[in-house]
Amino acid sequence: MRRFLYGRWDGTQREFSLDADRALDALSELLMQGLDLEQALEWMRWQGFELAGQEMRVLGLDELREELRAEAERLYQRYRMDRATHDLRRRLDEILDREEAALRSRHGMESARWNEFRSRRHAGGPLSRTIESFRDHEFEDAEAGQEFQELLEELEGLRRLEEFLRERGERFRGSEAADYETAQDVRRRIEGLEALARALAEGRLEALRPEELGDLLSAEALRSLVLLRDLRSSLERAGYLRPRGDGLELTPRAIRRLGAGALAAIYGTLRKGRPGRHETVSRGAALPRPDETRPFAFGDPLDLDVTRTLLNALRRGVALRPGAPVELPLRLEVGDFEVRELDFTTQTTTVLLLDMSWSMSWGGRFPAAKKVAIALDHLVRTRFPRDHLFVVGFSTRARLLQVGELPEAAWDMGDPFTNLQEGLMLAERLIAKHPSGSPQVLVITDGQPTAYFVDGELRVEWPMGVGGISPRAAEATLRQVQRITRRGVTINTFMLDAAPELVGFVERMTRINRGRALFTRPNELGSFVMVDYLSRRRRRSAR
Question: If you ran DSSP here, which 8-state letter would residue 350 be given?
């Protein structure tokens, strides 16, 4: 059963509709940096974001508030308010002059009404107080009384202007003298700017009415405000976010798109080549390539291409008896046999060990590594569903990361230790549980081991001196490398730092395992890992 939610049309929905796909792409970039979902959404609201492919930037709340502040400051620098109420005071004086003349003429200058009138008129104080004091006065001059009633209708606005000028009057330092109407317009505009700025500071976007804000914001700012207001709801309607407890979570659809985006970014740096699957010469199921055949050789599977085999027999018969009719049935010989080329595919179990120690937060290392993990997961799930891929994060401790955790995974803040040994232990258990003919471990790290287990007890060990090593942590880790190597597991290591102590340790690990060690920069990591994963088994069958 479908449910529809209707909202009040404000005239901006069509013009300012948010592209949820582009918004999710912007969100994914922040998730790659190590922010969780709520933090990433808040960052987008406050700092703004780019909509890739649309040549458009959505201004953040901080930028919108700065625009409001700048507009208010422009008004302060343009006007001066020393004559803001002069016109109103002159009107009041003209009214009271006529009334005073009428009182003097009818009651004389010694009457009680005359004295009361004079007392009120010269009591002093703000203009609004003087006007208020004559609210109950019975005017002798009827025309003056009518004009006073018109003036009385302006009393509330006057009070607000006087209060405004008491608080902000000194800030107006411009050269343009504002009359009463202009001063009221400036007051209303500045108060509107300040009220909107408070609403933005408090995050109260849903209550804002864009059609009422057009005179306060530029077109770009108004568009950005609408898009920020609709950010979460647009992502929810598109099926990328859903409620979870008191917050939100990414849906499987969103995670798939994040994976596809990460994979596309990585593949964009690879050379173009022949499409295909993992290929091997010795294991797995064989799939025919219908466009490629070759003559049969002893030992080949008898997977004949019937059409080409019969054509070979026909050509041979024609060559032997030129001009003679073809004899049926055709007589086949071994030399006529044409077999189809085969691609052999196999299954792999891969464990990606992702360093999550605090140092991975430097220099864009962790975002690059996490993007690789998400892309590799998406690659396996969409192109190699029979493969097993596991992502294990390790700092002081190692843990298996589920698919749904990857987009929001972050380095372990304040945790500087690196327990590669436990990461390899967990990888060994996962490979034993999911055996395959081509098990491999991919390690992405920026530092040597500094944490390890002895008889089930966790220990940590700082490097010995500047540029030194952690000898006991290194030896314990290398013993685990030996154990996993005996299982036939290949370890390929991608180093994000060229420190001599890390290079030296990885060289020792490589001599034991016979895997590969590569130094790479964060922006190149995806290409190295993806090429490694795809190329280990991309070989054509032996001819």
Answer: E
Distance in angstroms (rounded) separating the CA atoms of residues 343 and 288? 6
Residue boundaries of the structural domains of the chain: 20-76+192-250, 86-167, 285-345, 348-535
Tokens representing 394? 């390790």
Name the least confident of 19-33, 75-89, 299-313, 436-450.
Answer: 299-313
Q: Are residues 49 and 58 in contact, defined by beta-carbon separation less than 8 angstroms? A: yes
Alpha-carbon gap, residue 288 to 290, rounded angstroms: 6
What are the tens digits of pLDDT across the range 280-321? 444 444 445 555 678 888 777 777 888 888 888 888 877 767
Domain boundaries 348-535, corresponding CATH code = 3.40.50.410
Token pair in block for residue 130:
């003087």
Check residue 281 and give its pLDDT: 42
Q: Cis peptide before 329, with omega less than 30 degrees from 0?
A: yes
User: CA–CA separation, 482 vs 454, rounded Å?
Assistant: 16
**What token pair was written down for 146?**
């009518």
Give the count of alpha carbons within 13 A of 259, CB side only. 22
- Give residues with Cβ within 8 angstroms of 48, minimum separation 6: 57, 58, 59, 60, 62, 63, 224
Q: Tell me what pLDDT residue 358 has.
A: 86
Give the largest Cα separation in the chain, rounded. Answer: 151
**Angle at which helices 180-201 and 61-78 cross, to 10°:** 160
Tokens 């949820």 -> residue? 20
What is the rounded CA–CA span in Å between residue 526 and residue 369? 8
Q: What is the 3-state secondary structure (H, E, C) of 260-284?
A: HHHHHHHHCCCCCCCCCCCCECCCC
